[in-house]
Amino acid sequence: MAAVRRELDDAILGMDAGEMTTSISYRGRNQHTGAASEEERFWGKVEVGEEDACWPWLGRIGDGGYGLIRARGKSSFRAHRLSWSLHFGAVPDGLCVLHSCDVPACVNPKHLFLGTKKDNSRDMARKGRAGSQRYSDRYRNPHMRRLTEAQVREIKKRLVAGEPQSVIAADYPVGKTQINNIACGRAWAWTEGKKVEA
Q1: How far is it, in rounded angstroms, from Cα 109 to Cα 195?
Q2: pLDDT of 147-169, one tens digit each?
Q3: What pLDDT was estimated at residue 196?
């Protein structure tokens, strides 16, 4: 932290008064508001494990299982792209950040690499994720789920008993939409009780 403080002090000494209010570094807390920096918020939502293991994103998860964070002026910035930027610099225009581990929620920089959209499509096809894969199959990956199979079985029992989806959702780290996806067989279809008849 002392090194970060020295870096900030050196940067501030080289600025005129107008630059100081707009050029606060992403490292460390904002000196004017005391708010957590983008980097602090990022690391607060990462489960850092072994050096070569996946580091799952613990924050908000969006479509396709990718982590999302408010960053770089966007309300939904992909966490793996921010991980790349924090470790290697800005992502060049026209390139995507791809996963060698094929775990969308992983933010371990060792598992990330740059490629074009064409490279991304080829990578998806080679790994069997393109086109024909069912929606529910994505939830087989433990880094992409927020529920255990035991919890899903319990949810299905409660649905069969006629309990309202909103009441069930309040008891789990998912929303009503996910409970509805379970009820309709769009998610967790491979668990017992393939589809819950409403």
Answers
A1: 39
A2: 888 888 899 999 999 999 999 98
A3: 57
DSSP per position, 64-89: GG-EEEEETTEEEEEHHHHHHHHHH-
**Residue 38: closest CA among 81, 62, 70:** 70
Q: Domain map of the chain by residue range? A: 1-29, 60-126, 146-184
160-166 long-range Cβ contacts below 8 angstroms, 24+ apart:
160/193, 160/196
123-130 CB contacts, 8 Å cutoff, 24+ apart: 123/98, 127/102, 129/102
Please report how the helices 176-184 and 149-160 are oriented relative to each other, as an axis angle in degrees rounded to 10. 80
